[in-house]
Structure formats: C-alpha cells, structure tokens
Amino acid sequence: MDMNINWFPGHMVKTRREITENLKLVDAVIEIRDARIVRSSKNPEIEKILGDKPRIILLNKADMAEGRVTKNWKKQLEDERTLVLEVNSLTGKGLSGIKPALQELLKEKLKRSKERGIVHYEIRAMVVGIPNVGKSSFINRMAKNSVAKVGNRPGVTKNKQWIRTKDGIELLDTPGILWPKFEDAETSLNLAFTGAIKDEIMDIETLALKLVERLGRNYKGRLMERYKLEAFSEDALENLNSIALKRGCIIRGGEVDYARAAVLILDEFRNAKLGPISLEWPEEKDEH
Fold it and tell me: Which of 47, 58, 118, 123 has its CA 20 to 30 A from that of 183?
C-alpha cells in the first residue's frame, strides 16, 4: 500500500527548537500515545529533544487495548526517569495518577525545594504528542479541572497558555505539532487504522482489507464472532466479502458494496465493537 505522506523537516526543526526552549520552563514532560499502537504513535525525535528530562508516558485509550499487552508496554517503557500510566482522556480514567507520578519522578527536586523553605512547589509539565492521539482531549479534560488559565510568563511567547489544574500542576501545551515519521508501511497503517491519519487521504477500501488481514492474525475469533462467519479464509478479501454479505453491504446485482463494508469495519474497530485490541506488542527491552 503506497502511502504518499510527507514528513515535514522544516516544520519539525522549528517545533524541535520551540520545544527545546520551553523545556527550560518545565520540570517534566507528559507524552501521550495511543495504547493500541504504542510504537507507531510516538514521535521518533522525542528522545533526542527531551534528553534526560523526567517524563510520564500516558497510554491513552487504554480501555480499547488489551490489558496484558499494555502492562507489558508499561514494564518495558518505565525506567528511573520515565513512568507510564494507562488512561482515558475522554472519561478522565487514570488521570488522578499524574500528580503522584510527577511527585515520584521529581522527589529529589521537591525535597531540595522544601529544604530551601518552598512549601508549595508548583510542578510544571509540558504536554507532547502526535496529532489525533488524544492530546487536545487531555488538555481539555485537565482544563475542566483547572482553577484558572495562568497569565503569560516571562520568556514564553504571548500566545502560550498555561493551565493550572486543581491539584496544583501547571501544564503547558506543546508549541507546534510533533508529526510522526512514517518510517515503514506498518507504522502508516497503524496510524490509519486508528484514525490518526485522516480517512480522506486514504483508500479506505484497501485500508479495511488490510485491517481484516491484520486482525485475522491475532483476533480471528473476534471477527468470526462479531460478523457470525461460519469459516475463516487465508484470503483477507474472501473474509471481507463474507463480512459484507453478513451485514447486507450489497449493491444491485448482488455485488459487494466495498465502500459501505469498509466504513462499517473501520467504524466498528475504532469504536471498540470488536473488544479491546492491541495492534503492537513490545519487543526488545531497549525500545522506548
């Protein structure tokens, strides 16, 4: 599947510079990824940009992924400067863990502040994430719990808004946008399956076929149960045809209406009608 999606080097250079400058203003970084595609939904530049800044990785939409797989990701990604939380930004599930996690990561810094007589140290964190991974719903959710928008600070350009949440954390949204780097077809497909790449630039019939093929590898039983299939073929197109027939996606003359079938399958996957599904598993221990 040829995906003509460009990565914007000039745009990324500017964003990287802005993030680097803003890192000086924060104690930690909150990085948001999609729990179903933990590897594909990170920006590959993020490690270089963050350096040794403490980080929380939020595995968003965790209820849509398989719990055991997400736990393995958590085990793999955590180290002395990184903690991982399973969350749902829309419902707010898991977000109460952010403050304790930040306090844990910053305990030395907080201890030093206390020794200097600063009793209420306001922790500041910058939020990063690729498009459509749930960053804006996270910001909106945290803003709902906010006491007030904090005024502009010295060294921060005019349009940057800090949000002070009720639990005393100040959040700074990322300047610019971190784009994923589509290093291989697998990454591009994962982002497309979950809706992180807009369907308008995709051939959704091919995408649905690829999704049926992918789910056939690990979730054959789920597809058979959901679409009441009597048999499951080695051929993804045959399975797509069977699903279309079962769901009445037929045009005059008895032919399969692939456009309708594609929309149906993608919608049902994205709305977790097939149950919790993880499209990526952790591999070597050194991968962040």
Answer: 58
